[in-house]
Write a structure and sequence with these properties.
Low-confidence stretches: none
Number of strands: 10
Helix content: 25-40%
Radius of gyration: 18 Å
Distance between the termini: 38 Å
Order of helices and strands: HEHEEEHEEEHEHHEHEHH
Strand content: 25-35%
Shape: globular
Mean pLDDT: 96
Largest sheet: 5 strands, mixed, barrel
Length: 262
């Protein structure tokens, strides 16, 4: 890549982000401003392709809100370019579909690991390497959810490349493989299914960056198959609030560590 002042895809430079080391990342560009609204002095930075970015302040630190688009490839690009600018902590705020009967629409999932049923992470490290979150980030997000008194779960998510491969597996040429693996992930206890967290965790591990993820369960096809009549929940505000509460705790821990070293 030819080096330019701004990172090629996200179109941000070091001067743009004001030394920010923390990023909250939704997939949908439309959610970025909603996240930024929880920050002090929020300000729009840029929009290019699927990457929309805002900046604001939280607990005395500059914090970015940057969308990463759909799927592993675009997520990896955003993480790589933000890390190049100095970001070291990434929290994904996303949506997902339930895979266990006890996961209700509207529940929050604090992700501690992801099934690497996608392709991006395999171009970083062999499939034997686990896609796991950073413990500090996971703990902070757990404490944030507890403080907000919300229904939440901590566990593994299924991460795939094909949305319709999950929702219409029977019409795919590899239907048998998709259906048998889906049953496998459910039996193994995967909580929800989504598309980006495996890439996020694997890329961050390779860059020695911290990562965590908070998922909203929109709908649960397992419950629907069992006859439940749940209404889907699309409002991501609760997941955003958990991310903000968790990040406050992380920033506080980092500030205390720096003070001890000073």
């Amino acid at each position: 890549m030819v080096k330019t002042e701004k990172e090629y895809h996200i179109q941000l430079s070091r001067s743009d982000i004001e030394g920010a080391r923390y990023a909250i990342m939704p997939g949908d560009p439309g959610r970025v401003e909603k996240i930024a609204a929880y920050l002090e002095k929020p300000r729009f930075l840029n929009a290019n392709r699927e990457y929309t970015s805002w900046i604001g302040w939280l607990s005395g630190e500059p914090v970015l809100a940057v969308s990463h688009g759909i799927g592993g490839p675009s997520t990896a690009i955003a993480v790589e370019e933000l890390a190049e600018l100095g970001v070291h902590t990434f929290i994904r705020v996303g949506t997902s579909g339930g895979m266990q009967e006890g996961i209700l629409p509207g529940d929050i999932i604090n992700v501690n690991g992801a099934i690497r049923a996608e392709g991006t992470s395999r171009e970083y490290v062999g499939i034997e390497y686990p896609a796991i979150s950073d413990f500090q980030v996971t703990r902070a997000l757990y404490e944030g959810a507890e403080a907000l008194h919300v229904r939440h779960h901590t566990g593994v998510v299924h991460c795939k490349d094909s949305f319709y491969g999950q929702h219409s597996p029977g019409r795919m040429p590899v239907a048998g493989e998709l259906l048998s693996k889906w049953e496998c992930w459910i039996r193994a206890g995967a909580l929800v299914s989504e598309m980006e967290t495996a890439a996020l965790f694997t890329v961050c591990a390779s860059l020695r960056a911290r990562a965590g993820a908070v998922m909203l369960c929109i709908w649960n096809q397992i419950r629907e198959e069992k006859g439940y009549t749940d209404q889907p929940v699309y409002d991501t505000d609760l997941a955003i609030r958990v991310a903000i509460e968790g990040l406050k705790r992380l920033i506080g821990e980092d500030q205390r560590k720096r003070e001890k070293k000073a």
